[in-house]
Amino acid sequence: MATQMSSMMSLATIPSLKFPHSKPPFLNFPKLHFVNSNSNPRVSKLGIGSVRAQASSNIGMGFVEQAIKLVQASPPTWQSAIFSNTFIFLVGSPLLVSGLSLSGIAAAFLLGSLTWRAFGPSAYLLVAAYFLLGTAATKVKMAEKEAQGVAEKGKGRRGPGSVIGSGAAGCICALLSIFGVGGSAFSRLWELGFVASFCTKLSDTVSSEIGKAYGRTTYLVTTLKVVPRGTEGAVSLEGTFAGILAAMLLAASGSLLGQISTLEAVICVLAAQIANFGESLIGASLQDKEGYGWLNNDIVNQRWYFRTWQNLLRPLVLWVEHLPLYQ
Question: Cellular location of this protein (predicted)?
């Protein structure tokens, strides 16, 4: 008993533990305040909406940045060519429908993709200029041409045959460039041939359509006899002059866009006139004649163009490229 009493007395003499604060430290944590989302549903919904809007904005900006990088890809890739061409076709669909049939649009899509892949956006702009100018010339005095029976079928809307015929030479030049045929020594030649092909076709289209609309007197190129408007192989002063101006305009555009040089632009205009004159000769001599029903305008245009380029203009280009002034 005495031992228990002494133990209790010793515990009583131990000094009490005092804390510097009124409360122990583990009781001094800051209070946690919880917000009941149900108490103000409008605020919570606005917060969630702003987060979603921000996320959508970030996704949209990321897509735009990727699209811009894709369009600006240098050198162009198939992916950038198809993406850019698809976007432009969707935006420009009203213009395309006015100038092309549905099958013509499909053929034009192929041409546009090849153009972008081979020579980039500047060449694509050149082809777009060709399409707009050619369509505008075709629509000139359409009702009067229809009354005379010399208008293009389908209110001037071109089909796949016309598109392929117009762009066959350009497509071949594009493919030769894409696959690097001839190496760097021939790369400029393919690009020049590409521009020259569209200068030739635009000059032909404009001279024909303006001649039908405004030509006072048309002459058969082989005999110089006066013939009605729209006769195969016939030419007029008004149409010829308009065709030369069209070729000059497109060649100058190609030079400004950096596709060709000034000297090469002159070559393109020269090629256009030689090819168009040759086409008129073939049209007057063979087209619409018995046994040559397959020989339509599109075939004549491209076959004569290739022959002209092969035999006359390619040596001229190679000669010009070695001139001191050109270098």
Answer: Membrane
126 token code pair: 């050149």
From 298, 85, 319, select the one nearest 201 (Cα to Cα): 298
**CA contacts within 13 A on the Cβ side of 265:** 20
Instruction: With H, G, I as helix, E, B as strand and everything else as coil, classify residue 152.
Output: coil
Q: What are phi and psi of 75, to 5 degrees?
A: -70, 160
Q: Provide the whole-model pTM.
A: 0.73
Report the phi/psi class of residue 51: left, alpha or beta, with left for phi > 0 and alpha for psi in -120 to 50. Answer: alpha
- DSSP letter assigned to residue 14: S
d(CA 118, CA 76): 7
Which tokens in the block code for residue 56?
Answer: 């959508």
Question: Exposure pattern of 64-95 as b/e (b: 16+ CB <10 Å)?
Answer: eeeeeebbebeebeeebbbbbbeebbeeeeee
CB atoms within 10 A of CB 142: 15
The amino acid sitting at 163 is: V
Q: Could you give the CA distance from residue 142 to residue 136 in angstroms, rounded to a whole number?
A: 10
Burial of 150 from C-beta contacts in 10 A (0-12 / 13-18 / 19+):
middle
Record the tokens describing residue 278, joined without a space.
């040759």
The predicted-structure confidence for 79-131, as pLDDT tens digits, reads as follows: 999 999 999 999 999 888 888 988 889 999 999 999 999 999 999 999 999 99
